[in-house]
Amino acid sequence: MTDSPVQLDESWRHVLQKEFDAPYMKALKAFLVEEKKAGKVIFPKGSDMFRALNLTPLGSVKVVILGQDPYHGDGQAMGLCFSVRRGVRVPPSLVNIYKEMQSDLGIPPARHGDLTHWAKQGVLLLNSVLTVERGRAASHQGKGWERFTDAVIAAVNAQTTPVVFLLWGAYAQRKAACVDATRHLVLKGPHPSPLSAHNGFFGGHYFSKANAFLEEHGQTPIDWRLPEDAAED
């Protein structure tokens, strides 16, 4: 991360520059620099830190899915919530997302966990915290990222075009409590984790409801089917 978001899509740079200029973000940058100097491994790599924003420009956002922290295992985090690189085992929560998608839309589960295809269509796959130390879940919570991603959500909420918010779990629902549900569609459900998915996540029909809302408002629905060929992403 730098003082200026040099690797940030221009649409986001415009609305978030004041955040990068704020003292809390300068302190966050200093924290990350010191962690790396101390030999700690930070995920995801720097070029992927703002990947969710770069793949989904502000004006292209149709759907927002909120996560909490990046995956903290080697090779997992790629800058998109719930998503992992091809060749990495599909995480349990994403397995359950695929199960619900199959039940809802009849789409067979992908053999990989790369959600880039969704992001490029306007699905903002945003974690509340954008970095983590290897092997230490939630290690970068409370360092400033939450304030930054609050600003991201506020920018989406301010858009005149209606957006769908998929809020799975109490954390995501608190995070997006500011969203204007009179303009946007807010779909809530339990987190897809194996610990909670059977408490109401399954059967939520989130994907069909999201597409119906988009079509009702004159937008192209999301193609939730994930290509098996990476070249198609």
Report on the structure:
The chain has 233 residues and is an alpha/beta fold. The chain contains 8 helices and 6 strands; from the N terminus they run ααβαβααββαβαβα. The chain has helices at 10-21, 23-37, 51-55, 92-105, 116-119, 145-157, 170-175, 206-216; strands spanning 42-43, 63-67, 123-127, 132-133, 164-168, 185-189. α1 crosses α6. Belongs to the uracil-DNA glycosylase (UDG) superfamily. UNG family. Residues 54-214 form the Uracil-DNA glycosylase-like domain. Pfam families: UDG.
Q: What's the structural blueprint in terms of helices and strands?
A:
Elements: H1 10-21, H2 23-37, E1 42-43, H3 51-55, E2 63-67, H4 92-105, H5 116-119, E3 123-127, E4 132-133, H6 145-157, E5 164-168, H7 170-175, E6 185-189, H8 206-216
Parallel strand pairs: 2-3, 2-5, 5-6
Antiparallel strand pairs: 1-4
Helix pairs in contact: 1-6
